[in-house]
Amino acid sequence: MSLEHFLKNAVSSWMKQEGPASDIVLSSRVRLARNLEKMKFPTLASNEEAQSVVDIVRQHFGGKSFHELGELEFLVMEELNNLEKRVLVEKHLISPQLAEDSAFGACLLSPNEEVSIMINEEDHIRIQCLFPGLQLNEALEVANTLDDWMESKVDYAFDEKHGYLTSCPTNVGTGLRASVMMHLPALVLTQQMNRIIPAINQLGLVVRGIYGEGSEALGNIFQISNQLTLGKSEEDIVQDLLSVVQQLIAQERSAREALEKTSNIQLEDRIFRSYGLLAYSRVMETKEAAKCLSDVRLGIDLGYIKDISNSILNELMILTQPGFLQQYAGGPLKPNERDIRRASLIRERMRLKK
């Protein structure tokens, strides 16, 4: 396995699988924040201390196999160019922060890209597990198993009263961030999201864009995650999130039914106009592509469009991002060149159908 394995395909193998409620929930993620005992957090560590963390993790886990996940590939951020790091961000394998502050950063990746373990991001270790559809409990189970395996080889910073100690106080306790990526076009079209987001925030959850904190909800894709990590068990945190997500699924399906009943011809027109733009445009910006892809995915889910795979949104939302476009081009592209190549790539993908 090599770096090329993680860069050449837009869709990770786990993304090609169908998951529960996958018409609305694109993916489920569980992330655990951990730090090594008696070592300064990355925000305060010297260069020597930060490098020591990298060395410890590489020694114990780099190239090691873990159950059915296979051999974990160890990547050092400083050895990657900016384009390669951007592609890993676009695939959600590393965070924007790790890509930007990468002097002593690294990551461990499983071959199917279901597991990513970031080193020296905000914390020494961040274990991330990604599953298709609504599978938060399954992701938590794998994350906990990985966590136990790592803790059998290294000592974590832990306090009997406060739990796992982290760089940011909001992660102290379980260190758990659970999130789901949801496609909610009908709630946006019926202007319900502006009312729903504040209500979700009041429940101790947060709504973000496709790449997490500070990012935009491109293509009507929203990330819903917990904010509280202290005072609740991991199971309770996941269950609270699941409860809200299940309500959102029901509301999105209800909004889709209402649109079909009250605005069917307008909805059908919107979907097929977007289909036409994707199929025939010669120039397309990121936001326009995301909007059209969202419309077409909705059309597939509602049965208006029958000859295109419903994985198209997952695939093209990543494939048409700037990093991937330049990776396929073999080098940097100017913004207008990216827009031309994006349109060309979408046209080719639409012709493949499946």
UniProtKB/TrEMBL annotation:
Activity regulation behaviour: Appears to be allosterically activated by the binding of pArg-containing polypeptides to the pArg-binding pocket localized in the C-terminal domain of McsB.
Described purpose of this protein according to its UniProt entry: Catalyzes the specific phosphorylation of arginine residues in a large number of proteins. Is part of the bacterial stress response system. Protein arginine phosphorylation has a physiologically important role and is involved in the regulation of many critical cellular processes, such as protein homeostasis, motility, competence, and stringent and stress responses, by regulating gene expression and protein activity.
Binding residues for ATP: 27-31, 92, 126, 177-181, 208-213
Enzyme class: transferase
Signal peptide: none
Name under which the protein is recorded: Protein-arginine kinase
Annotated family: Belongs to the ATP:guanido phosphotransferase family.
This enzyme's EC code(s): 2.7.14.1
Domain Phosphagen kinase C-terminal: residue ranges: 24-255
Motif RDXXRA motif of the pArg binding pocket involved in allosteric regulation: where in chain: 338-343
Pfam families documented for this protein: ATP-gua_Ptrans (PF00217)
Stored InterPro entries: Arg_Kinase (IPR023660), ATP-guanido_PTrfase (IPR000749), ATP-guanido_PTrfase_AS (IPR022415), ATP-guanido_PTrfase_cat (IPR022414), Gln_synth/guanido_kin_cat_dom (IPR014746)
Gene name for this UniProt entry: mcsB
GO molecular function: protein arginine kinase activity
Keywords: Allosteric enzyme, ATP-binding, Kinase, Nucleotide-binding, Transferase
